[in-house]
Input
Amino acid sequence: MHIRKLNSLRGIAALIVFFTHFSDITNWLGGILGGGSGAYGVMLFFLLSGFLMSYLYLGKDCNKANIQAYFLARAGRVLPLYLVIVVSSYILTQTDNPLLYNIPDEQSLVAHLLFIFGDSVLWSIPPEIQFYLVFLVFWLSAKRRRGYIYVAIIAVMILLFFTNFPRIYGDVYGVPYNVFNVLRSLPLFFVGVIMGMHYDSLKVPDYLKSHWFILALCLIPLLYPALSPVTTDAKRKMWLSYEVLLVMSSVFFCLVFLVPNNNLLLANRLGDFIGKISYSLYLLHMPIIAHVNQYALAVELKLLLSLLLSIFAAFLSHRYFEKPVATWIRNLPAKRAANKAVTNAASV
Output
């Protein structure tokens, strides 16, 4: 079953990150949309990731064929563009032409390729990859009893709370790592997993659903440091706050469970389009904004140009690179089986 609303939600997450970084780089609107507020877009990505993995796979047998299909699908979706950007960033940095991201030496390159560290927006890919392995443990546990998943999640959440989200980072022989990135991301993944587990079984009565629940999205700007009604330092804790986790989880629950599936603001062609290119939009927008900002243009023109160029670059990447490569990767087992069948037939 395809949940069309998730396309638009994925697009909204990417646009939150885009506008935050544009505000930070250009000081648009006095920077009120910046200050690290792109974190809330990334949180939506992590919630979506946990939800979709749980929804798509926990109901399937955890056998060799399904595990292989799972890893090939995940690898095909995330790795090709990420690896191209990482290697290109390293090469460009070595030639004093840092058009993408700062990967200054071999140690940094290795850290990116091992998914233990990431520069700029690349930081969020290692936690994503690491959670694929965590989810495999959940999947294996669900084969015996799903209750083990709840026990593991509750235990980790309590541990993170009492250890105050330990900042485990450093380097080994110059290779940087930041385990804190995955630790601070786990609660979002976990909430997504739990919601995905119950999407089909939790039957929300029609009278409780309403298009007005889309207004839950308005809670996200209220978390922005410059817009938050909170006056303490808690408004900048973001990843370290279970209060923020509660708000973001509530927004996600409202949009996925309580907003009707035919909501025009979430189920439309524009949302489908932005959602499809959201990953490449997320990875490519920063260099484009930085480059456009070098021109002597009005900030409104910079915004329009940055957004259009980012969307165009993301479309080209998705259409002519990501999608074909992902399809090729997912079809590897079928091609291997076909080649084996031809070989066996020829040997008879």
